Amino acid sequence: MSEELRVLQAIRLKGRPTEPETAAAIGVPEGALRQPLRALVDAGLCAETRGRYQLTSAGRDLLARQVAEERDSVNQTALAAFYDRFVEHNAVVKQVITQWQLIDAGTPNDHNDPDYDAQVIGRLADVHAASAATLAGVIGLAPRLAPYPHRLAGALAKVQAGEHTWLASPLADSYHTVWFELHEDLLGLAGLARADEAAAGRAE
């Protein structure tokens, strides 16, 4: 699969990433995308403002065509089976994120109870381990998704080391951020709409 698709999709999912953020998302060294990103800007597919990139309408149109081509190349029957398993893991991840943010429906988690937080982090580690085989199966069908397990493992390691913003912060490549992007990628590969999945209780 082309680097162009990987870069355009990373920019779409992250909104307005920097070059290092884009590189990390697709699993290449920092600095490796300087020239490719400049080429996308020169081609009118991306715009760059103060070191941040976003897709233009032409970039979004091209990406939609490329994702459709990728979707046609994927075994949809096998993908549907893996997606059903992913949805089961997704339900647990959603519960973990909610538990991290709220002790109960009316009580925000102020993170002053280390035992409670440790239990939630343990649940995150459990679902991370449980979902590994599903992710490996998906990557076997769509190799472009290969960076996701590494990104998830990296975020989990930071959380377990005490850097708790890496669990759910939208401002970092947190576990929840990466999981959300993975889910969005799977929706595109399967030709599903997030709004429809959310209405069915299968998406955030």
Rg over CA atoms, rounded to whole Å, is 18 Å
Q: What percentage of the residues does DSSP assign to strands (E)? A: 5-15%
Number of E-type strands: 4
Q: Please give the oligomerization state of what you see.
A: single chain
Task: Note the run of SSEs as H and E.
Answer: HHHEEHHEEHHHHH
Let me know the average pLDDT. 95
Q: Strands of the largest sheet, in order across it?
A: 1-2
What portion of residues is helical? 55-70%
Low-confidence parts: none
**Gap from first CA to last CA:** 28 Å
Helix/sheet category: mainly alpha
Shape, principal axes of CA atoms? globular
Please count the helical segments: 10
Biggest beta sheet attributes: 2 strands, antiparallel
Describe it for me?
- With 204 residues, this protein is mainly alpha-helical.
- It has 10 helices and 4 strands, in the order H-H-H-E-E-H-H-E-E-H-H-H-H-H.
- The protein has helices at 3-14, 19-26, 34-42, 57-73, 76-101, 114-141, 147-160, 165-168, 175-190, 194-199, and strands at residues 46-49, 52-55, 102-104, 107-108.
- The chain has a two-stranded antiparallel ribbon with strand order 1-2. The chain has a two-stranded antiparallel ribbon with strand order 3-4.
- A hairpin with a 2-residue loop joins strand 3 and strand 4 (107-108).
